[in-house]
Amino acid sequence: MSSIPHIPALRRGKPYASLDQTEVRDFRTGEVKATVSQVNAGIVRKDLARVAEGQAALKKFSVAQLIEICAKTGEQFLTGNLPLGDQGHMQSPQQYIETLSATSGLPHVMVRRNMEKIHLALTNMKTVVNGLSRGLDLSILDNGSGEQFGTRLSYFPTTPALGLVMPSNSPAVNSLWLPSIALKTPVIIKPGKEEPWTPYRLIQAFIAAGAPAEAFGFYPTDHEGAGEILKTCSRALIFGDKSTTQQYAHNPAIQVHGPGWSKFLIGEDCIEQWRDYVDVMAASISDNGGRSCINASAIVVPKYAAEIADALAQKLGPIQPAKADDPNARLSGFANPKMAEFIDGAIEEGLKTPGATDVTAKYRSASGPRSQPSACNDRADKFSESAPDSECCGRGPSALRKVTFDGGVFVRPTIVLCDSFAHPLANREFLCPYASVVQVPQADMLKQIGYTLAASVITKDPAFIDQVMAYPHIERLNIGPVSTMKISWDQPHEGNMFEFLWQRRSIERAW
């Protein structure tokens, strides 16, 4: 048995080793953590022609039985020693945490929290499905029709399988597809390049809990293969940035999960108490390393914008990278350093437009981690250990945003004070703790904020609450001092998986 695991593709649950394999490496050391078989679009196309076999395997179970399997899966995922690959390797929960951290940049504490979120979703699947289906008698899905609420009901599946093009940035996004198994829908998964671990472990946990292996397809593949999944599956989810997802924005068969542009608003009636909300605003911005689409990326207030930006900068600016196993770690490294360079460069480019200030720059500790000279775009040759801040374009060791630490590249928190929503940095989102603070009259807030996945609104004003409730471009709404990161599993926060996978139809029966 090789000391390096080989993760095969799974074709209707059966391992498939390809001659074309890639390596998943430790983002700090370059150590190979696994080899992963790659399949081409032709194999994906061939297997999708037989995907009904997986659907038939799930139909043998009732929804109630599959919900019980989900609960057992949650325990297996959280505590079990599960197969890793096709060469006899087993993976403990701690090994999963360490390996995922090594390849994704997430510190152990964040991997563990994401793991617990997935466990919570699985072990509470009855509540999840009840919320998504609005209390439907789930035996109606088993029988195809039935009677409830004094009326005849009939539902049919919209697809024989759910296609998934997954990201690498946050393991908890896998919780979004979990209800599909309880809803008798197989999954066809293209894992993220640096994150095969979570979907593969979930599949093994489902199989260990009694789910049919045929219900799971695991296809590490290229762009063409991903496109085949999206094109062939009647229902699919895709994750990515705007450039990746915008081409699917108007396709009702594809649920897009891109930037959330989530926001935190304070009303005129509560703004004088803004200091009471600094902690919940900071948590909304920085929890999970700022990598979630429900992390707040804009703070919108009717006054005191400069003071609020400064208070957030004081709280978040000093945060530094830490060892992966540090229980207090709050930043994630970047498996692809070019992403960190892009983020840092995009912020710097935006700051060139008048009307924005990086308020965190003055709070980044001079004793913090060092950046590579390349992190300073101008006069990089003058950067040295002894150079004062002024020697490096005003961005010396106390001001640097992109830094290296323990072999990894990190982007430290950034709070930008913008003079209006018209500024290019006012409504941006990055894979790090980042937020703009913008001063907008309450009467104009809803006219300017645009699409918002999650919004927390601090107000007790009934009229403003009514306006916010009626605003159609907020998908998840919190009223009061609630973090944008708070999720209720019985309420959809990124599309309703039940309505996506099952469709109601009218029915009349003579016998």
Overall SS class: alpha/beta
CATH class bucket of the largest domain: Alpha Beta
End-to-end C-alpha gap:
61 Å
Q: Level of helix content?
A: 25-40%
Task: Write down the oligomeric state.
Answer: single chain
User: What is the fold named in CATH at topology level of the largest domain?
Assistant: Aldehyde Dehydrogenase, Chain A, domain 1
Under the CATH scheme, which architecture of the largest domain would be assigned? Answer: 3-Layer(aba) Sandwich
Number of helices: 17
Q: How many beta-strand elements?
A: 24
Record the strand order, biggest sheet: 17-20-21-16-15-22-23
Query: Which sheet architecture does the biggest sheet show?
Result: 7 strands, mixed
The global form is globular
Mean residue pLDDT: 89
List the domain count as a whole number.
2
Indicate the proportion of strand residues: 15-25%
Q: Note poorly predicted spans.
A: 366-398
Our Rg estimate from Cα atoms comes to 24 Å
CATH superfamily of the largest domain: Aldehyde Dehydrogenase, Chain A, domain 1
